Amino acid sequence: MRGEELAFAIGPNMVVVTVREFDPSKDTEGVEAVERICEVGPSGKLSLFTDLHGDPICRVRNSPTFLMLVAEVGQETVGMIRGCIKTVTCGKKLHRHGKNTTEPASKQVPVYTKLAYILGLRVSPHHRRMGIGFKLVQRLEEWFRDNGAEYAYMATEKDNVASVKLFTDKCGYSKFRTPSILVNPVFAHSLRPSSDVTVIQLAPNDAELLYRTKFATTEFFPRDVDSVLNNHLTLGTFLAVPRGSYSPDTWPGSLRFLADPPSSWGLLSVWNCKDVFTLQVRGASRVKKAIAKTTRLLDRAFPWLCLPSIPNFFQPFGFHFLYGLGGEGPRAQKMVRALCAFAHNLAKDSGCQVVATEVSGQEPLRCAIPHWKMLSCEEDLWCIKRLGEDYSDGAVGDWTKSPPGFSIFVDPREF
């Protein structure tokens, strides 16, 4: 991709802005400088900072197709944007089989579309209100269209007025979904999963079969889910079943499990964000830090009390992301609670301070996911835009106008 020179009139002067593809050999330092200046929090308030570990494209690197653009004024990096493209479920349709088959006469099958995702839009505070952010979005959308994407979407906090106005008022995006980001601290003590639940770790091929059979019609389900499950950042897929139904020693494989499942079960996978980037809370007073430290000391000294201690968020910390949460049966919530306890202990053993997930606000299993309200976001905002006139399948029509379903599949590669 060649750079594109854009001229903006600022008072009596003309500022030339160049938009081009990110070059890691010369742009990393400038990009990191913009990231730092954009993350300066308000005085006297807590702020969350991100350390990308010297890899500005780490949050899209694992996607099938990705691009990062930078904006320059002279030799100075003043903005950047990242994007990736994948194929996901946008709806479902009824598929009818012929007579010579052992499958049911008809079943729901997914309808796929090519979807682009925008993240990490940053513009230096000294160069805002010049249209640089708008031009970065436009240039990235051109690349999306050139690569066959039918839709583009982005996620932001619903109270980020500047971001929402840019995308909805200027770029033609519509407010689409409002999932919840649920965050739970990792305590100094281990959690005790229910004694009448067994947790089994699945091989990637078993996990893929289970996901494709039970979750492929879930909105945003990635068609390349096998790439996600086999990625080195996926620490495992875990299945919870009633004790006595199956065990790691008697596990028959997903095919036989699906033919004769227990009355209730739960499923989730764990993604290791710690090896991609770390977070840090800044702006806390000495009193708050002292209180947090005291809770940790008490929790370590008396683990049997199971105190809800506050991790050390004031130093760089890593976290695990739980994805692909689901289950069936009257005790599915209990199965998910057991899996969340198991995931908490896995994060504790890995040195993480937080376990996070993102689910639809209407997700039936949402109430089974432990989280602290003060750390969580009850309503994240996803905005979407239709990029082309044609559709991959007329059964869905315009996805941007579709009503929300009960569940969504949040791809960990984009969190």
Notes on the structure:
- With about 425 residues, this protein is an alpha+beta fold.
- It has 2 domains: about 5-180 and about 380-415, Gcn5-related N-acetyltransferase (GNAT) (Aminopeptidase); about 180-370, Aminopeptidase, CATH 3.40.630.
- Helices cover about 25% and strands about 35% of the residues.
- The protein has helices at about 25-40, 130-145, 160-170, 205-215, 225-230, 255-260, 285-300, 330-350; strands at about 5-10, 15-20, 45-50, 65-75, 75-95, 105-125, 150-155, 175, 180-185, 195-200, 235-240, 265-270, 280, 320-330, 355-360, 380-385.
- The strands form 3 sheets. An 8-stranded mixed β-sheet has the order 1-2-4-5-6-7-16-8. It has a 6-stranded mixed β-sheet with strand order 9-15-14-12-11-10. Strands 3-13 form a two-stranded antiparallel sheet.
- Strand 6, helix 2 (about 130-145) and strand 7 form a beta-alpha-beta unit.
- The mean pLDDT is about 90.
